[in-house]
Amino acid sequence: MPEASYVYADVYYLVNFLMDYTVLWATARFARFRVRFWRLLLAASVGACYSVLILFPGCKTFQTFFFKFLTSVLMVALVFTPVSWKRFCQTLLYFYLVSFTMGGAMLGLINLLTNIPATAIEYLSLPYFWLGAAVATAFILGKWGAAFLQRSFLQGLLHIPVKIKIQGNEVKIEGLVDTGNQLIDPLTGNPVIIVEYAVLAPFLPPELRKVFTEGKGEVDFEQLVKGIRKGEKPFSLRLIPFTTIGKHHGMMIGFKPDEVSILAGEEILKTSKVVVGIYNRSLSSKGNYRALLHPDLLYTSVA
Hints:
By secondary structure, this protein is an alpha/beta fold. The chain has two domains: 133 residues; 146 residues, no CATH class. It is 44% helix and 20% strand. A nine-stranded mixed sheet has the order 5-6-9-4-10-3-2-7-8. Helix 1 packs across helix 2, helix 1 packs parallel to helix 5 and helix 4 packs across helix 5. It is elongated.
């Protein structure tokens, strides 16, 4: 008689929970969502519970495509709603993209490192090595996959109209999503948009303009702050440390705008949690864009 095989429900639950959590996290990265930790935990728990449920006798009905699809829709909804119907469908496609890529990577490694045909995989217990390979694949996709696609294939599509409100005035410019721009405001942790001084100059206080026209690269910060305080309207200045080749400890002058609006596809993303860094040179030799956007500005927050 063949030996009886055992499946431990708690171990099976934990394995599926880890995989579902990683897939949902990678989906959020691809779809540019900021999601709550508890939402990921809840959705991964639902997926893991479903995986355990279909092991029990009498639950074959739940193994059909309809229930599998319904469970995946529920998991995505728990993490990413409320959003528009179109945005939800896009996110669901990302979910399946990550899931299939993770599963394909696992099967590919099994075929590469063993002599067992893929059709026999379902009869085998899942070694922890393959689980680690699957989770690592999803992690790599979420961590670097979206950024790689942006740099390699989508650079021409990442020119995005940007509108900056400065003390009642509006500046409309073309921005480029730059995955290399990781500047954040050390005071608030908000992302930084780097904008050419030439387009901002008409809306800046006189003392701040003098820094860029007469400063010759050196900034007298004490004099600058005194000059700004003399103005009729308050102007929130920021000093943003940065590192470049040949200048390891630079300091960029920035300010907090009233609001920034970004046209991302058919959506308009508005935020005041951003800092504008002033760059006193041209960002594009052809003038195709006048600002570099922090990639985090394209992420949609979900409550």
